[in-house]
Amino acid sequence: RQAVYAALRDVEPVSRDGVRVKVMINAGLREDMANLSLTGADGIGLFRTEFQFLVSATLPQRERQTRLYRDVLEAAGDKPVMFRTVDIGGDKILPYLRHDDGEGEENPAMGWRALRVALERDGLLKVQARALLEAGGGRTLNVMFPMVAEPWEFDAAKAVFDGQLAYLRSQKKLLPEAIRYGVMLEVPSLAEQLDLLAPKISFLSIGTNDLTQFLFAADRANPKLAERYDWLSPAILRFLRRAVRGVEGSNVDIGVCGEMGGRRLEALALLGLGITRLSITPAAVGPIKELIGRVDLRAIREAMDGWLDSPPENMRATLANWAVERGI
Ligand code: PEP
Ligand code: MG
């Protein structure tokens, strides 16, 4: 694998019409950081902070969290890291963090998870906010919140960070030089309120794994449904097109951090939707960078717009033909 990574490490993801696309990787552990230099990726577009919680027997204390975040930032050097606050609960059960009534949930993916847990157990979010703010001292810190369904949830989460920031300032601690706040778009209801959210955030990361399961009401963990819904379905692509349009004209940097972006035709479709920041699994970085180098963004955007206005019978086959005809 390392040899394959090395061969494509220095490929610049510049489209044929000269657009530099950002190709980042998803990570969650210290060990993942080596993939940055191995793949030549532009940064960590999704750092899943819950991994530290999942591999711990007890709730990670603040100092341990701070140490991890600091190590990750050091390892990333000048490249950005987008830290996602904990997405636990639901199916990612922590034995030391029990649901109040101790009961399992019938629909954990749609249940008490992520920001819903963090806002209720706000001690959890306070500790994590302090750890991130301290670790980001003297740097730019990127923070994003998972499973935001309504803009007020972003406000509430950011207020926790503001409170910790004020505390650190009063203690004369070294603060981040800049803090960029972002939100995951993975709950469809948020897409209807992007205009309200956009002025408050710096970036939006589309989590296509959860978004797809909610859009189709299809459990992402159920193998019986895995073949049933296609990421290239007009339902998803039209949804994404609306999301892209929803933040157009604002300063929101929009990207995709779900698995969809790591597949060739899916990545091509995302480029066609105007998305120029992908965060993907490390093994996909080289192939996707190569793909980008062969694509004329203007051409795929125009084609995609037409296909979405009047969808072909088989979007996957249509995209594949388009790519083959152009030697992509
Ligand atoms: C997603 O839902 O697409 C995502 C990137 O987050 P996760 O896979 O961690 O739920
Ligand atoms: Mg998700």
Automatic annotation (TrEMBL):
Covered residues, full protein: 409 to 736 of 739
Residues making up the signal peptide according to the UniProt record: none
Record localization: Cytoplasm
Domain of life from the UniProt record: Bacteria
Family: Belongs to the PEP-utilizing enzyme family.
Phylogenetic placement of the source organism: Bacteria, Pseudomonadati, Pseudomonadota, Alphaproteobacteria, Sphingomonadales
Protein name, per record: phosphoenolpyruvate--protein phosphotransferase
